[in-house]
Amino acid sequence: MRSRPVLVYDADCGFCSASVRLAERLLHPRCTTTPRQSADLDALGVTQERAEHEALWVTPTGTVYGGSQTVAKLLLSARGAWPVLGALLMLPPVRWVAHLVYRWVANNRSRLPGSTAACSPTLPRPADRTD
């Protein structure tokens, strides 16, 4: 069993990779970051489809959070005052707004700074999750 949560992200996407590097530098989160392209998704208990759809946070016990809740969990694992913001992102109605913002960013990441051609949403998307 893992002792730390795992943040799974899309390393082919320049915006995603830059966001993770920035989070590591600013937040110093208590997690392991791993690109979905090299992650053992089966061992983490997530499907390839979901890993292609959103960033994922996998707890040591195997609970999986996606999208904006991944961001909230990342903030909760950070040092300093960041966990307060993470806690707010977990509460309705802030959680609902965070979900909409995350989906907008994910769907438009090819237009954001640091994006690459791999950031373009070309895959069919599963139904949006709010967990």
Protein topology:
Elements: E1 6-9, H1 14-27, E2 32-35, H2 41-44, H3 48-53, E3 56-58, E4 64-66, H4 68-76, H5 82-90, H6 94-107
Parallel strand pairs: 1-2
Antiparallel strand pairs: 1-3, 3-4
Helix pairs in contact: 4-5
Q: How big a fraction of the residues is strand?
A: 5-15%
Q: Tally of extended strands?
A: 4
Helix content bin: 40-55%
Alpha-beta content class: alpha+beta
Listing every helix as H and every strand as E from the N terminus to the C terminus, the arrangement reads: EHEHHEEHHH
Mean pLDDT across every amino acid position: 89
Contiguous low-pLDDT stretches (5 residues minimum) are none
Strand line-up across the major sheet? 2-1-3-4
The backbone outline, from C-alpha atoms, is: globular
N-to-C CA distance: 22 Å
User: How many helices?
Assistant: 6
State Rg. 14 Å
Q: Can you summarize the main beta sheet?
A: 4 strands, mixed
In short:
The protein is an alpha+beta fold and 131 residues long.
